[in-house]
Amino acid sequence: MTVAVPAYRVPQYRRYVAGEAISVLGDQIWYVALSWAAVELASPGVAGVVLAVSAVPRLLLMVLGGPLADRFDALRLMVGSDALRAVIMLVAAGIALTATEIWLLVVIALIFGAVDAVFMPAAGSLRPRLLETEQLSDGAALRELGVRAAMMLGAPLGGALVTVGGLALACAANAVTFMVSLLALRKLRPRPVELAPEREPYWASLRAGLRYLLSHRLLRTLMLVALLFNIGFVGPMNIGLALLSEERGWGPPGIGFMLAGFGAGAAIGALVMLRVRVRRNIGIGIAVSALGEAVGIAGATLAPNLGLAVASTVLIGLLGGPLGIMCGSLSQANTDDAFRGRTSSVQALLTLGVTPLVMAAVGWLAGKFGTTPVMLASAGVEALAAVPCLLLPWLRRASTPEAARG
Question: InterPro entries, from UniProt (predicted)?
């Protein structure tokens, strides 16, 4: 049997990862610039509202974008999204050079979020069509590295651009990132998808996608695991670490060290997964990673000093990367080509889409009950994600198709 080359040796997949990572970099620059401009024009409270409003179109349109990715050319949707976001950013840069008002920021944020929501399900639909099934695991690892690097670089780069040239420079630079992403993606040649003889009406297509997910026991269970994992993870990492650092007297450097520890751990975990392919009993691997992350969250919460807290966030990152890679590759390997866009859109909703809601809930609960109980409760939700992985045999013993053939 011929052994497929690793995904990182596939030129067009490397180009895809570069294009998606640069697009994510642009997203990060935009949200930093948006928050800075909102604080300058109004207040931190108003900035929070503006950021929450900007997330609403993504939340509402992620699922609605799924049928578009399955009905139309996913690559063209990604390229079109990049092109439109570049134009939006150039318009925003022009506005910032003349007069910036808070209502203009809100309008731009809403339009940007709507266009951005189309990119993610299209990307999820396209990715598996650039690889063979046995390349999906290390392909997911390479993408994890690229996206993680973009997220780590995007925020400080956005801050630097705003410091040097204000909102106008940040938006102009952001437009460049989307144009570079467009150029990287436009020459890809994904495996074609066999289309139905007659195209379903849009809403019928959406309903068919939801029925497909609900009837597929492995995919619907993975969706539940992803939701529990996300609920337990995003609150502690986005708000909890800042609250802990403030309460323990570690200050802003403490937040930076803990996030750096998480980033280093995630990078190491993704690098390991480039070489290690988990093909059998994947549910057990997911469960071990989720339990380990729960231990890391609890460890950071109860750590008596910053050094142990940083070590705990390294553990979170070290296991978080493989967890996402195993869930993603297992889902991709078991999704029919005709439903990839709709499956990807629901996955994005349950991970990225609910993030603002979880962050708001964790912040409110921490103010009412205290940071430590809420962080420990989040660790408990994270551990709960391991339960279906261990109890349900079709997930516990799940294998990739090439493992089953072997």
Answer: MFS_trans_sf, TM_effector
The pair of structure tokens assigned to 271 is 């690098």
Residue-wise pLDDT tens digits, 170-223: 889 889 999 999 998 988 888 876 655 456 777 888 888 889 988 999 999 998
Q: What angle do CA 44, 264, 387 make, to 5 degrees?
A: 85
Model confidence over 331-361: pLDDT tens digits? Answer: 888 888 788 888 877 877 777 667 767 877 8
pTM: 0.72
Instruction: Quote the CA–CA distance of 262 and 319 in Å, as a whole number.
Output: 10
In the DSSP assignment, the letter for residue 191 is: P
* CA contacts within 13 A on the Cβ side of 133: 16
What domains does the chain contain, in order, with CATH numbers? 1-185 (1.20.1250.20), 201-406 (1.20.1250.20)
Q: What is the mean pLDDT of the chain?
A: 82
Long-range contacts of 241-250 (CB under 8 A, 24+ apart): 241/300, 241/313, 243/366, 243/371, 244/300, 244/301, 244/309, 244/371, 244/375, 247/371, 248/306, 248/309, 250/306, 250/309
**The tokens 């103010």 sit on which residue?**
367
**What are the respective helix, strand and coil percentages of the chain, to the nearest 5?**
85, 0, 15
